Amino acid sequence: MNISQIRRFLAFSSFQAIFTLAACFAASAQAQGDVQTDSMAKRMQACTTCHGAQGITSNQAYFPRIAGKPAGYLFNQLQNFKDGRRHYGLMVGMVEHLSDAYLLEMAQYFAGLDVPYASPAPLKTPASAATLQFGKTLALQGDKTRQLAACTSCHGAALMGVLPSTPALLGLPRDYVAAQLGAWQTGLRRAHAPDCMGRIAKVLKPSDIDALAGWLASQPVPAVTKAALSLPQPQTEQCGGAK
Ligand code: HEC
Ligand code: HEC
User: Fold this and answer.
1) Would you list the DSSP string of the chain?
2) Which pTM was predicted?
3) Which residue, judged by its Cα, is nearest atom 9 of ligand 2?
4) 65 CB less than 6 Å from ligand 1?
5) Which domains are assigned to the chain?
6) Mean pLDDT, the chain, as a whole number?
7) pLDDT reading at 91 higher than 90
8) Is 81 in the pocket of ligand 1 (CB under 6 A)?
9) Distance (Å) from CA 63 to ligand 1 centroid
């Protein structure tokens, strides 16, 4: 299924489709263990309808890539959907009845996938060179006058995330990045306390978010796409969720 087919599919009968997907998924989750030959890959096909084959998506869609993200991060997010810290209805419906043990198994499965990233497509609505430059400066240097640390100080120098639970900022759709920062501003998305991203997002202006999302989504991923094992120096502030 390509992105436009998924869009049509979702626009056509999203709720019905999701309930069908969720039902298939729940059934396959229940069958877990019963059927020896039932592989995790097969059961996780319900997820790849939206997250892309093997967890890849393009920078033009909305669905975030999940393949290869730190397991601790993915597990936190599945719990966040289940426990009401994130509210995307379709995701909540998929995970609310699953055990934490199974959420962890799913997180580990997707974290273990090592699949290539697509080159970033041109932005649908081009950003000016000045906007992109501003986004780059904020991401790499932050803005001390606003107590805004560089994004790299937590997400890693390569912005490919840091183990155990900080995600990559490259390889994500522009609209998704902007929406997440907006959701943190309004409190619609929360992380385990202390929710550092909530504080950071509230410092950002709409023009900052626009510049950051545009620049991040235009960057090709580096040769090494794996999350860093650790940061060279301590974070400027604590974030919850690291286990
Ligand atoms: C109907 C489409 C759809 C299906 C099916 C789906 N997802 Fe999602 N998923 C999304 C969308 C859209 C988001 C982003 C939601 C938001 O804005 O918070 C998301 C977010 C996520 C996130 C958080 C990603 C991040 O970077 O923070 C994880 C983890 C995830 N999904 C895992 C799964 C798993 C595992 C499955 C299968 C059980 C699944 N999803 C099935 C649409 C879907
Ligand atoms: C103090 C550390 C810290 C700093 C600085 C920081 N982040 Fe984060 N960020 C995190 C952590 C930790 C998470 C995971 C939160 C969670 O568990 O939901 C995160 C998650 C995110 C996500 C969600 C990714 C996804 O896949 O859903 C986005 C987007 C994001 N940060 C953007 C930024 C941007 C842009 C900057 C720079 C302006 C930045 N962050 C600076 C720690 C930080």
Assistant:
1) --HHHHHHHHHHHHHHHHHHHHHHHHHHHHTTTTSTT--HHHHTHHHHHHH-GGG---TTSSSPP-TTS-HHHHHHHHHHHHHTSS--HHHHHHHTTS-HHHHHHHHHHHHT---PPPPPPPPSSPPPHHHHHHHHHHHHH-BGGGTB--THHHH-TTSS-BTTTB--SSSS-HHHHHHHHHHHHHTSS--SSS-HHHHHHHH--HHHHHHHHHHHHHSPPPS--SPBSS-SS--SS--TT--
2) 0.88
3) 197
4) no
5) 3-111 (1.10.760.10), 129-218 (1.10.760.10)
6) 84
7) yes
8) no
9) 7
